[in-house]
Amino acid sequence: MGIATNSTNKSQACIDACNRCEQACYECFKACLNEADVNKRKNCISILVECAQMCQMSSSLMSMGGQFVKEHCKLCATICEKCASECDMFKDEHCMRCGTECYSCADECKKMTGM
């Protein structure tokens, strides 16, 4: 159920997944910056921010019933999968947890697009 109205019922699971993924990406971003091998993580760090931003935008568009929700969710799924694969390259706990959230978000976004 939506927070203020029932208008988001059909997309609430995806909104929640996007919000969790955004948070996980920012947390992982901060943690990666503090890792000893930060230079090896440049691609991962970059996609973490891109993924968090895309998740935020997708969540916002779903919340307001935007007309391009399906298109954003499709791109969000693609970016989340790329971010997860980057996180999979690192075996620390924060990257593994972030990758899990990214895959979960990608799955929910695919459901929104009918994929």
List the helices and strands and how they pair.
Blueprint: H1 12-33, H2 42-63, H3 69-87, H4 93-113
Helix pairs in contact: 1-2, 1-4, 2-3, 3-4
Pfam families: Csp
Quickly count the domains: 1
Determine the CATH topology: Substrate Binding Domain Of Dnak, Chain:A, Domain 2
CATH class: Mainly Alpha
Rg of Cα set: 14 Å
Class derived from helix and strand content = mainly alpha
Taking the sheet with the most strands, its summary is: none
CATH structural architecture = Up-down Bundle
Envelope shape: elongated
The percentage helix is over 70%
Q: Give the count of helical stretches.
A: 4
Number of strands: 0
Residue fraction in strands: under 5%
Which consecutive residue ranges, at least 5 long each, have pLDDT under 50? none
Average pLDDT figure: 92
> What is the CA-CA span between the terminal residues?
23 Å
Order of helices and strands: HHHH
Q: Keyphrases for this structure?
A:
single chain; 115 residues; mainly alpha; Substrate Binding Domain Of Dnak, Chain:A, Domain 2; 73% helix; Csp_YhjQ; YHJQ-like
Task: Characterize the structure shown.
The chain has four helices and no strands. The two termini are 23 Å apart. Helix 2 packs antiparallel against helix 3 and helix 3 packs antiparallel against helix 4 (93-113). By secondary structure, the protein is an all-alpha fold. The chain has helices at residues 12-33, 42-63, 69-87, 93-113. The longest helix has 22 residues, at 12-33. It has one domain: Substrate Binding Domain Of Dnak, Chain:A, Domain 2, CATH 1.20.1270.360. Pfam families: Csp. InterPro entries: Csp_YhjQ, YHJQ-like.
